Amino acid sequence: MAEVIQFNCPACGTMLRLPLAMASHQGPCPNCDRDIIAPDPQRGIGAFEIPIPPPPSREIDPFRPFAEPSRIEETAAPVISEAPVQAQPTIVQIPVCAKPQRAILVLSCLLTGAVALAWGYALGVRSNQYFTRLPPMPPTVSKAREVEMPITITDPPTPDSVPVLVKPLSEAPKVEKIPVANKASSAAEASLRAFLDAPDWAARSAYALFPEKMRAAMESYSHEVPDGPTAFTSVSLKQSHIDEKTGNTLYIFQVVTDKYPSGIPVAIKETAGGWLVDWQAFVEFRDGLFRKFAEGPVDKTGHFHLIVTRPTPERAAKTENESFASFLLEAPLADQAELAFVKKSSETYSTLQSATTDNGIFTPVVEVVKRKTTGGQGYLQVLKITATDWLPTEN
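Given the sequence above, the corresponding structure tokens read:
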């Protein structure tokens, strides 16, 4: 297997190359500095731009009920207002008499000290009343900001001795703030599960992309492959992509089955009719259609989502000539690549040659035909590239 991934940045189109070990890794594009996720050829997943999250809503602030600024502000106010008033009597006026100045000075000091002690004691007693009634600074103000969304607001614990200075939270409607992406992915996963659990093709077509075009193909396919639900053990979200033209979201889920414990990549797209699944790519991966095509009869043509790489120089030297070049075609869940040929004079050859330079990996949708040599040996030929990535399209 090649050790380099070559792909176009989904944000600016710049050709990028990464080691195969960095498949599905996230990082900024060196040209446009947008965060992207590298493709994963083993799973048949192309590069995706990470959508910029919408700014947080200003209508609902989930942390506001925990702050309670009015409780601290109103309780502490009496300490600030009374302290200056109590500090004034520390200066005592002593009438002047005919005694020597030394005796007057001593007497003044004694009286001043006694008055200061009395007022200090009174001030300390009164101050204690306010400070002992203040609750300790609640740590929930700082900790609440560490809670990851989504979060459900609940009543914070309040000591019985602390007066409630704000409206109790229980009297206000409780609001659960969930990011839009979580709501969307939950709805998408629900549609995907309904698609997998559908008892037959007719029920499944309600959750398939481009149903008007696919219904005939789904009905025909049900006569070739036993129809029914697809048993799975788990479904997990792996990647997302936003269509810049429509603003609609596309999710890539991983569906784990007993046959494919590493998971089948399944695309589900947001449409006006709801979240719909790319049925064509799903059955292609699940049922190994490219493998059946390569082992099947000649003079057949098919469209497949494939991983394209170059053969080793030694193998290329044995299989290529002045008219044809060779490439390796591999399905995402297969364990063996098939050798295929393409005319060197075609535009398809130029595209494949450029995309696989320096052991690069290319993940297009290609049209392939199976032909036969004059000696009766079958071989595969790439006719054209119908798409440079695996994002579902109607064509």
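The domain at 290-387 is CATH 2.40.50 (OB fold (Dihydrolipoamide Acetyltransferase, E2P)). Try to locate this feature in the token string yourself.
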